[in-house]
Design brief:
single chain; alpha/beta; Rossmann fold; eight-stranded mixed sheet; two-stranded antiparallel sheet
Length: 254
């Protein structure tokens, strides 16, 4: 049998319907990977589609899904927080477990990398985690706001912005929630293997973030630096290179 993909849905803690795509290998498996997407993106980014296909081809179940308020999932983007997305990721892992997956890995891109990392430490079933183009040196989400945006947040309790052609909004809750998490400490005390993937021409998040993160826990983490790759791995050859490395790494760690 050949690998296949099918739509899948589940509810988050708020009762909102989350849309996903499940990649299944040709035969049954007890190994599965949950894939998490970047900020204001969806599960259909090129790198996640590539990973889903290649993981299934290697005998893994793979589930990529849209966070609430993104893609085809229900919910308001303005209600996004790391805590909410971590919860949705854990529920996605539980969906795999309900299908016989007992060994779970996580892989996320950009903001999804941070979510995957933070979710992994809250799950006993997690065996390995991979971050792709993640900002791992620390949160401090307020640093990305302009002075005018900070004033808007202080006065109105929300900030509006445009991303990928969408008019979006975040509230104080997003920023105060982000401040609750300590990424350096999380990585330092990580007990499972961590693969840190980054393009050396990333124009959004510097490759220096990968080296910094590796330094937090060099015994548990490995670096995979992709020459000439940008943040979205927009070059098909780069996506294929990343996917091959990630799949091989999960095969060796799970």
């Amino acid at each position: 049998m050949h690998p296949m993909e099918r739509p899948i849905h589940f509810n988050n803690e708020q009762g909102e319907k989350i849309s996903g795509t499940l990649h299944l290998p040709g035969a049954g498996t007890d190994r599965g990977i949950v894939l998490t997407h970047c900020f204001t993106c969806s599960r259909h980014t090129g790198i996640l589609r590539q990973l889903g296909d290649d993981l299934a081809g290697a005998g893994f179940a793979a589930l990529r899904f849209d966070f609430s308020g993104n893609g085809q999932s229900e919910g308001e983007f303005s209600q996004s927080t790391y805590t909410k997305q971590i919860s949705e990721t854990k529920i996605a892992c539980a969906m795999l477990a309900s299908r016989g997956v007992s060994r779970v890995g996580l892989a996320g891109h950009s903001m999804g990398a941070v979510v995957a990392l933070l979710a992994s430490v809250k799950m006993k079933a997690a065996r390995a985690v991979c971050t792709i183009a993640g900002r791992l040196s620390g949160m401090n989400a307020m640093r990305f706001l302009t002075g005018a945006q900070r004033n808007e947040l202080d006065l109105a309790g929300r900030v509006a912005f445009t991303s990928r052609g969408r008019q979006l909004m975040l509230t104080h809750d997003f920023f105060s929630d982000a401040d609750r998490f300590d990424l350096p400490t999380t990585i330092t005390h990580l007990k499972i293997p961590l693969l840190i993937v980054h393009g050396d021409q990333d124009e959004i998040i510097s490759v220096a973030e990968a080296y910094t993160a590796h330094g937090f826990n060099p015994d548990r983490s490995e670096l995979a630096i992709v020459a000439d790759a940008d943040h979205m791995f927009s070059n098909k050859n780069h996506r294929e290179e990343v996917s091959l490395q990630v799949v091989a790494w999960f095969e060796s760690r799970m």
